[in-house]
Amino acid sequence: MSSHNEFSHFVEICENIRSTNSKNAKISILSDYLAGLDEDSLPIAVLFLSGRIFPRGSKLNINVGFSTIMQSLSEIAMLDASEIQQIYLTHGDMGALSEYAVSKKHMISLFRQQQLTLFFVYNRLKKIADTVGPGAGKNKTKILTGLLIDILPLEAKYLIKIINGEMRIGLVEGLVEIAIAKAFNQNIQVIREAMLVGGDIAQVSILAKRNSLDKAIIKPLTPLSFMLADVMFTAEEIIKYYQKPLICEYKYDGIRVQMHKFGQEIRMFSRKLADITNAFPELADAALAAVATITSSSPSNIDFILDGEILAFRNNKPVHFQELQKRMDKSWQKSQ
Fold first, then answer.
1. Catalytic one among 59, 244, 251, 317?
2. In CA terms, which of 11, 58, 101, 161 is 20 to 30 Å from 310?
């Protein structure tokens, strides 16, 4: 059995979870695994298992697409693009394709003298995310190819699943939260409250391990889980529930957003907690300008988190939601 902190053991756990149908059994496998991880590996493992590489709110984005992965796989397996494409169509899954290609690789690592750790794999992925500017695509491919040369076929399967954010082993973040609670003997409700406050499952896992969940804090520029509305069908039902005077307003069809300001930085997050600041740059600029007008001191002295709805108006009438939604398209953002 490999060490808890090695990537190969993480892969074994993923395979065990994938082949298990029972949610309780999945939680049991995962909680036993998490309990044995050190503080370097634990936050990485829970992020990977939650379908992410970096925490919510991180500016890091790996930006590795289909063509980059295909190029790396064809290089290490000495297969041309058409062969790789045919194998992909046969397997129907990038992870399975990667496992096959690495099993056929013609390159041998000169440096892998021991098992790779989760921490090492994470740092290689971070290096890919940090690679920007001219020649970034070529350099990302080079780093990814080097990592694929270093790892075993089954490890390659899960590496690509992690990169694509598609683990597909029957886990959702809610089950990972339950496993964290069980691993460190914490109340699941306290775990969920810490998630509502901090929004970062990696940090919550460390606090749970340290028995310090009461230290979870709101971090500006890190998105928080949204409070969603409940459905009531009549005015009478609403009055009976609250039993106090109420103020009502029309609900317009817009885009739910959190706006965070910290220092001179503004970031905006969607209902799915994606960073959508680039989709509404004029709102970020207007928020900074508004702060500057209400204070004689530096705008950096006022920080806030707002939760609201983005609406667009034309000729004093709300613009249709579908037109506003175009702003979320990355191709629109690149054209601006």
1. 251
2. 58
For residue 209, what are its two tokens? 């391990």
Instruction: Based on the fold, state whether residues 196 and 252 are members of the same structural domain.
Output: no
Q: Judge if 242 and 328 occupy the same domain.
A: yes
Q: Where are the alpha helices (DSSP H) in 151-232?
A: 153-164, 173-183, 188-198, 201-209
Is the Cβ–Cβ distance between 270 and 257 less than 8 Å? yes
d(CA 32, CA 261): 39
0.70 surpassed by pTM: yes
- Tell me the Cα Rg of the chain: 23
Q: Is 251 a catalytic residue?
A: yes
- Residue 170 near residue 178 (C-beta atoms within 8 A): no
- Note whether 7 and 118 are within 8 A (CB): yes
Structure tokens at 4: 């808890």
Structurally, the chain folds into a number of domains equal to 3
Give the C-alpha separation, 262 to 304, whole Å: 7
Out of 104, 131, 164, a domain closes at 164
Cα–Cα distance between 220 and 303 in angstroms, integer? 8
